Amino acid sequence: KGQVFQYTGNSKMEDSSAIITSHVMTFYKETEIATFSGNVRLYSKTNGSTINAGYASYDGKTKYAYARNKPILRSTTNNVTIRSSYMERDFNTPMAKAISNVHLTHIKTDGYADELSYNMDTQVSVLKGNPRLYQGNDRIEGEILEYNSKISEANVMGRGKIYILQTNNYVEGTKTNNE
């Protein structure tokens, strides 16, 4: 009872949902909780997504992970990258949550918020807390923003603002005024 195991140097833990590697792993047998530090990588067996971080903890009973120290989530299905101060990942579902200083990157879109929930199956992100999305110099702000990376479409919930860069170009068929 109360056994604690510590592994250093290329440690690896694997269960039915995830493969987690790090430089140092500490496993608490009674609670089935493991902590990881140094070059942590959480890999999802169900969808191939990864979270890289400086530190993480994983509950083997609930399949729930917490990551901090600059976690970065990468989704292999649609080139989405999410960075934040803190991240949570439920390996029973396709859901991930990024908290504080959130930055979403997808092709030509950058999103920023205090909090983001991401569904890897539907490829929909919900941004809350001063959310804004940028494509070049164009910007969308709102109380809550929903971004679908599968179709590169954004929805504003609540009050919103859209800023579009003004140009002197106009389009008429296939001609512009600067031809």
Structural features:
179 residues, elongated, two-stranded antiparallel ribbon, 16 strands, 14-stranded antiparallel sheet, disordered C terminus, single chain
Explained architecture:
- The protein has 179 residues and is mainly beta.
- It has no helices and 16 strands.
- The protein has strands at 4-14, 18-28, 33-44, 50-59, 64-68, 72-75, 80-83, 86-90, 95-106, 109-119, 124-128, 132-135, 138-148, 153-163, 171-172, 175-176.
- The strands form 2 sheets. Strands 1, 2, 3, 4, 5, 6, 7, 8, 9, 10, 11, 12, 13 and 14 form a 14-stranded antiparallel sheet that branches. Strands 15-16 form a two-stranded antiparallel ribbon.
- The chain is elongated, with a radius of gyration of 20 Å.
- The termini are far apart.
Largest sheet: 14 strands, antiparallel
Structural Rg: 20 Å
Q: Span between N and C termini? A: 79 Å
Number of strands: 16
Sum up the overall morphology in one term. elongated
Arithmetic mean pLDDT = 89
Order of helices and strands: EEEEEEEEEEEEEEEE
Low-confidence stretches: 168-179
Q: Classify the beta-strand content into a percent band.
A: over 45%
SSE class: mainly beta
Figure out the total of helices.
0
Helix content: under 10%
Topology record:
Elements: E1 4-14, E2 18-28, E3 33-44, E4 50-59, E5 64-68, E6 72-75, E7 80-83, E8 86-90, E9 95-106, E10 109-119, E11 124-128, E12 132-135, E13 138-148, E14 153-163, E15 171-172, E16 175-176
Antiparallel strand pairs: 1-2, 2-3, 3-4, 4-5, 4-6, 5-8, 6-7, 7-9, 8-9, 9-10, 10-11, 10-12, 11-13, 12-13, 13-14, 15-16
